[in-house]
TrEMBL record:
InterPro entries named in the record: DNA_bind_recomb_sf (IPR038109), DNA_bind_recombinase_dom (IPR011109), Recombinase_CS (IPR006118), Resolv_N (IPR006119), Resolvase-like_N_sf (IPR036162), SSR_resolvase (IPR050639), Zn_ribbon_recom_dom (IPR025827)
Active site (catalytic residues): 32 (o-(5'-phospho-dna)-serine intermediate)
UniProt organism field: Paraburkholderia acidiphila
Protein name, as recorded: Recombinase domain-containing protein
UniProt domain Recombinase: residue ranges: 212-316
Amino acid sequence: MSTITAKRARRPVPAQQQPARPPRVFTYARVSTKRQAKEDKASFERQERYARAYADKQGLVLDEDTRFEDRGVSGFHGDNVKEGGALKRFLDAFDAGDVIPNDVLIVESFDRLSRQEPIDANEHFERLVRGGVVIVMSGKDGGDGREFSRAALRRDDTLLIVAKLEQSRAYRESERKQQLSREGISGKCRRWLEGKRGFRVTGSRNDPDWVTWNEQENRFDFVPHMEQGVRRAIELYRAGNGTPEVARVLAHEGLALSEKWPVTYLQKTIRNPSLVGTRELTVAGEEFVLRDYYPAIIGADEFDELQALVDRRGLSRGRSESVAVVTGLGIARCAVCGSPLVGQQLKRRLANGKPIRRIRCSHVATKAARCSSKMGSCLSEVLEKIVMDFCSTQANLDAMFNVTHNDGRMAMLAERRTELARLERKIGEYEKRMDDEDDPLTQTERKKLRQFEADRDAAVDEITQLEREMKLHVKRRVSTAKQWRSLVKGVIDLDPTARQEARKLVANTFERIDVWFKGDSQQDAHMMAVRLTGRNGVERQVLLDRRNGDIIAIREYDDVEYTVTTKTGKATAEAA
Ligand SMILES: [Zn+2]
C-alpha cells in the first residue's frame, strides 16, 4: 500500500540528513462526510491535476503511488491525525525520514489539514514547515497557490499570521456548525434516537401540563395533581362518561385540568401520545417519534385500547347527553315547593336534530305530586337563555358580585374562635390536674372534661367549615358580562365546552335560582318568573315570556312595581 513504508524498511534515513533523492510532490485530501461522493471525486481530481501541473512546472516528481486521502474523517475532532488517519501516515513518514526537506505537500486549503483548535492545528503545520516541507495550497478552484515553507516565511512573515487566521477560521466554522446541529431540534431528536438522554428537545411550551422539567436530574417529572387528574380522567372516560361529564366530575373532585376549556383539554389529552411517554414532532418536514421522552401515564396497550374506544364512541358522548347549565348544582329550585329542578332530555328530537330538553320540578318529574305548581316545567333553553341574558348585562352582573350584605359569617367565626380558646383553657386546666395526686379530678369534673373535649371538637369543625366557606367566598372569581355574552351562542347550540364553562359561571355567581313556571292569573299565563340570588345574597326577579324566553322585566326583590329597564332590553338584543 505505502511505498514510503516500504522504502523506510529498506532505508531508514533521519529526516535532517542530506537528501538522498530529489524532492517529490505529495497530495493530501480530506472530506469529512461520505456523502456528495460525486462532488468529492471532482475535487480530488482537480487537486490531482493541480499537483501534476505544479510538479511539471517545478520540475519535480509527483508521487503517484502514495495517496494520502481521508474520506469521512473529521478534521474537527482531529481524527485525520489519529491512528488510521491519512495525515497521520504522512506525519509518520515525515518522522521516519521518508518525507524529506523540500518535499512538497499539496492541500486544497488549511481546513483540509485541520479543523481543530488553532493551537492543535498549528502544531502539525509548524512541525512540517520547520522540518523543511513545502506546503502548497491549491485552493478550492485551483487558483490559490500560496506556498508555506521556511524560505517563504523568511521572505514574508505575514504568512505566519495568515496561517493562524486560516486555522482559526477553519475551527470556528466547524464549531459553529456543530453547535447549530447540536442545538437544532432535529439534531437533538437524532441524538435522542441514538439513545442519548439527559436533555430536552424543545422548550416547555410544547410539553404536556402533567410533566415538568427537572433541572437537577435532567429529566421530566410528573406534576402530581395534574398526573392524578389525567389518570382520573382516563378512568372516568373508560367508565363510559363523555368528556363533559368527565370535566364536571374532575372539577367536583378538585382535579380540574383546565380552568378555561376543560372539555377541549380532555379531548386533546385522551388523544395525546404523550400519555405513553412518546413525543411526536415534525421538524422542517421531518417526523420524529421519540419514545420514552416523558414518564408514561399509561402503557402502550392501554393507550391503543383508549384510542379504539374513542373511535367507537367519540369524545363528547358518554352516558350523559348534554352538559346541564343550571341544574345539578343544587342551585335551581322550584319556587312553589322548593324541590330541586332537574333536566330532562326527551328521546324525541326537533326537526333540526336538536334534542327536546325540559327543566322541571323534581317532585313533578318523579310524580311525587306534592308540588302544587300549576305547571311544573319549561323548555331548558328558556331558563338557560334568561340566566345567560341576565348576566350578559354588566349592571345586572355587578349586582350579583357586589358584597352588600354582611352574611354574618365573620362575626360567627370570631365568636367560635373565642369559644374555642375558652374550651382549650378549661381542658388545659383539667388535664394538668389529671396526674396530680394532691388534687385529682372528681367524678363530676371528669365528666365535664369529656364534655369540654366534645365541645372543642365541634368548635374546631365549625371553624374549619366557616373558614372554608369564607375562603370560597373570597376566592370566587368575578365574571364579566362579556364572558357570559361570548358563551350564549354555544350554550344554545349545545356546545359542550361552552356549556361547561357557563355552568361554572352559574355555580360561581348564584346562590339560588328559584323558578315559578307559570304566572298566577289568566292574564299572565304566558309569563314565568325567576328569582336570581347572588352568592352575596342580592336578589333580582326576572319576569319573562315562557314562550320565547324574552325578558319582560327585571325588578329588585324589595320593589313593588315592575320596572321595565331599557338596559335589559338592550342586553337581550345584544345577546341574540
Ligand atoms: Zn315544585
